[in-house]
Amino acid sequence: MKRIFDIIASGLGLVVLLPVFLLISIWIKLDSKGPVFYRQVRVGKNNKDFKIFKFRSMYVDSDKGSLVTIGGRDPRITRSGYFIRKYKLDELPQLMNVFVGDMSLVGPRPEVRHYVNYWTEEQMHVLDVRPGITDPASIKYRNENELLEGAEDPEKYYIETIMQEKIKLYLEYVEKSSFFYDMKIIFKTFWTIIKER
Fold this sequence. Notes:
51% of the residues lie in helices and 10% in strands. By secondary structure, it is mostly helical. Helix 1 packs across helix 4 and helix 2 runs antiparallel to helix 3.
């Protein structure tokens, strides 16, 4: 049921949101040099790598430094990038990942291999399910960039504190995962975005 819902919902989403995709794509191209989409290798179900789709919100090659984005005004982020990140529009292309089966609408957010290498054997059970666009950790840590901005060592703070808390929530999701629980998370995600904007 979950996979069927993912295919139908992501397929409809891609069709309905096509005008939005076109407008964002034009804005990104006019705003800075580089491709419209940003693709990055993430770790998916069964510990297999896949390439995630996002709208590019940073200047080209900005990811060659730190992997964490710090604060609301990271200089690596483009003008259009600030807007699409604020409203989570940069995540919309992941509907393509959902449609082809790399991801689900709901599931633990996929990490890069660099951070997964820090996980314990128990924490690796996060990879028993498909990663998702949203989940309880995404809602709780929606202002993660601001938390990192106040840290003396953002990378260390992410690995030792934020990532550990997020993994606990990921594992709780794996235990409680069900179609109806997913629906609850989807509605809670939309409500959180609407309430805070």
